[in-house]
Design a protein that fits this description.
The structure is a single chain. Strands 5-4-3-7-6 form a five-stranded mixed sheet. Strands 1-2 form a two-stranded parallel ribbon. It has two domains: 54 residues, no CATH class; 64 residues, Chitinase A, domain 3. It is 30% helix and 25% strand. The chain is of the alpha/beta class and 153 residues long. This is Nucleoside-diphosphate kinase. It comes from Novosphingobium resinovorum.
Length: 153
C-alpha cells in the first residue's frame, strides 16, 4: 500500500490553535465592563474544572488566558460628567436624518447590535470630545452628525 494513503491519526491534520488576539492599545473599561470580564473568568474557570475532553479543555483554557489578561490590564475609567462626549458616555445624535443613541465603551463590552460601540470605532471616535449642539464631521461628510444629548452611560 502506498504511503500516500496511510493515515495514522487526525492529530497531524488539525489546525494549530493560536492565542485569542488582544486588541491593540489601552484596555479601557467601564465599571460594568470590568464586572463582565470578572464574570466571564468565573464562568470559564467553572468550565475548565468540569471539562474532560481535551480539545474543549484546551479551548476553554485559551479563552481563560485571554480574559485573565484583560482583567489584569483593565483601566477602569471614571464615569463621565458634563456635556462633553467621553469614554462611557451615552450620546443621542442625528445622523442622516435619523435619531440614534450609542454608549461608548471598551473593546470587550462593545455590542454594536445593542448600540454599545468600542471607543475605537469610527463613529465613537468622531463623537469623542463633542458637546451638545455640536456638528461633527463623519464618514467624509462635513457636519454629518448633530449631537443632541450627552449623559453618563
Amino acid at each position: 500500500m502506498s504511503v500516500a494513503f496511510r493515515r495514522d491519526g487526525d492529530e497531524e491534520h488539525l489546525e494549530p490553535k493560536f492565542e485569542v488576539p488582544i486588541p491593540p492599545g489601552p484596555n479601557l473599561v467601564t465599571v460594568h465592563g470590568r464586572q463582565l470580564i470578572v464574570g466571564k473568568i468565573a464562568e470559564l474557570e467553572a468550565q475548565v474544572a468540569a471539562l474532560t475532553e481535551e480539545t474543549a479543555l484546551t479551548s476553554a483554557k485559551r479563552d481563560l488566558r485571554y480574559w485573565q489578561a484583560r482583567v489584569d490590564t483593565a483601566q477602569v475609567q471614571p464615569v463621565p460628567e458634563g456635556g462633553i462626549v467621553r469614554f462611557g458616555s451615552r450620546v443621542r445624535f442625528m445622523l442622516g436624518g435619523k435619531a440614534r443613541e450609542i454608549v461608548i465603551v471598551g473593546h470587550d463590552e462593545a455590542d454594536p447590535a445593542h448600540d454599545r460601540l468600542a471607543f475605537v470605532a469610527p463613529l465613537a471616535k468622531a463623537l469623542l470630545g463633542a458637546e451638545v449642539g455640536d456638528f461633527v464631521d463623519f464618514n467624509g461628510r462635513e457636519e454629518a452628525i448633530e449631537v443632541l444629548e450627552v449623559s453618563a452611560g
